[in-house]
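Data availability (excerpt). The following record was deposited with the supplementary files.
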Amino acid sequence: MHVNVYDPQGEIAGEVQISDELFDTPMNLGLVHQAYIRQRANARAGTASTKQRGEVRGGGRKPWRQKGTGRARAGTIRSPLWRGGGVTFGPKPRSYRQDMPKKMRRLALRCSLSDKQASSKLTIIDGLNIENPSTKTLAGILRALNLNRSTLLVTDETQSSIVLSARNIPKVKTLPVSHLNVNDLIRHDHLLITLKAVRKAESIWAELEEEYSPLVVENNNTSPEKNAKRSSTPKKASRRSKNAAEKETTAESDSGETEMEEAK
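Predicted structure:
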C-alpha cells in the first residue's frame, strides 16, 4: 500500500510504499487481547506477601482458659479473627509470567499496527532532525502534525536528543522500533513513526512469505544419461538373496549326493 510521508513542518513530503504484511493484516481481537494480558502480567513484580497465623510472632500461650469465663473460646491471640493476627489465604510471592509462541506475538503486533493504519492514526515522518534537546521544537512538530492526543513516537534507534525533548511533554512516549509492543500501541491514541523505523520494522516483522512459504519438493526425475548409468551399473545383492542362493546350492548338492548313492 502507498501512504503519505510528512516533513517536520506538517506538509506532505511525498508518498511511500509500505508492507501489506505489517500494516494490512486482518484484526484478531482475541489474539491482541491475549498478547496485552501477557505483557501486563509479565510486568508484575509478584512480591506481595502476608503472614499466616503460624508466621506471626507471639501467640503461643492460650489467652484464657477454655471454660468458665463466659467469653468465646480462644487458643491464640494471632488468630485471623483477632487484630494483629495472621491473614487467611493471603498472597505469597509468586511469578505471574505467561508464555506465548513467537509467531502469535508477531501476529498480534502486526494486527495492532494494521489497526492504527486502518483507523488513520498512523503518521510517517521523513525525519525529526533534532540534534540538541529542545522540548519547544518537538512540541512544534507535534502541533504541526495535529497530534494533540497521546502519541507514541517511534524511531529507528534510541536518540538521546529526542528522548530528552519528549520527556517533559504530557502523554508522549518515545520508543526505539526494536522495543515496539502491543501494550504501548493500545495505550497511546496515535502512532508517529519515522521512515527509517518503518523500514527497520519491515525487516524485522514482515516475514510472512519466508515463514509460511510451502515446502519445496525436489524433482526426482533425473536426466536420461544418469538413468542409463544407473541401469548399466549392477546392483548389489541383498543379504536375503545371498542366503536364498546359498540354500539353493546346498539343496542341489544334497540331491546330487543322494542320486549318486542310489546309483551305487
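Summary of structural features: The beta strands are 2-6, 12-17, 122-125, 151-155, 172-176, 190-194.
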